[in-house]
């Protein structure tokens, strides 16, 4: 916490001249101020404590001086001493290191908990291959089923529409419309089925 200021050039000059702005100060106060200004802080200018500044302000007010304290303090700075950090407790540091190591070990175990070294090889396990074959088989069957359904709907509509329409264009158009509706319905069922399978995983 700040308890002093680094005296500026104005305050140093005023204290140095005996007949200047601080000439009417009491002798003891002048001596105390000169002693404070004469002592240099390490690598800094002279330090003047706040208590001495309070005395100086009171003396200037009693003497009826035309100089105010804030005018004398032009160019001065508040001195904030560096806070020295206390040394860390070695026992606390050792405990913190143990806790960090324990947390890192738990994190590693959490990340690698689903890895089994006995099942790993370059190409995966037979169980993985079986799952992949089954899923591929299901996809192929679904696509084949979709194609057969759409083609069958087209063929049935085309052949059945000969009793309604005599023109070829009308028969093809009605077959395409029915095959499109059946294909969309089949796609809807496929999407709902896949959503259910993915939700179950």
UniProtKB/TrEMBL annotation:
Keywords: Endoplasmic reticulum, Membrane, Transmembrane, Transmembrane helix. One of its GO terms (cellular component) is COPI-coated vesicle membrane. It is a multi-pass membrane protein. It comes from the Eukaryota. It is found in: Endoplasmic reticulum membrane. One of its GO terms (biological process) is lysosomal lumen acidification. Its main location: endoplasmic reticulum. InterPro entries: ATPase_Vma12 (IPR021013). The chain crosses the membrane at residues 138-160, 172-191. One of its GO terms (molecular function) is oxysterol binding. The keyword Membrane applies. PANTHER family: TRANSMEMBRANE PROTEIN 199. This is Transmembrane protein 199. It comes from Gopherus evgoodei.
């Amino acid at each position: 916490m700040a308890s002093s200021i680094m005296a500026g050039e104005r305050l140093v000059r005023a204290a140095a001249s005996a007949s200047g702005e601080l000439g009417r100060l009491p002798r003891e106060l002048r001596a105390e101020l000169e002693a404070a200004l004469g002592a240099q802080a390490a690598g800094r200018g002279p330090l003047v404590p706040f208590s001495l500044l309070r005395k100086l302000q009171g003396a200037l007010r009693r003497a009826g001086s035309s100089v105010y304290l804030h005018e004398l303090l032009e160019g001065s700075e508040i001195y904030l001493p560096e806070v020295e950090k206390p040394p860390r407790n070695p026992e606390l540091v050792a405990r913190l290191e143990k806790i960090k190591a324990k947390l890192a070990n738990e994190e590693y175990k959490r990340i690698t908990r689903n890895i089994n070294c006995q099942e790993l090889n370059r190409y995966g396990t037979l169980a993985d291959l079986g799952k992949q074959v089954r899923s591929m088989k299901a996809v192929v069957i679904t696509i084949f089923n979709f194609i057969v359904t759409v083609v069958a709907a087209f063929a049935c509509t085309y052949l059945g529409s000969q009793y309604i329409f005599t023109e070829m264009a009308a028969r093809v158009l009605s077959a395409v419309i029915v095959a499109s509706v059946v294909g969309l319905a089949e796609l809807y069922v496929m999407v709902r089925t896949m959503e259910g399978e993915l939700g179950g995983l």
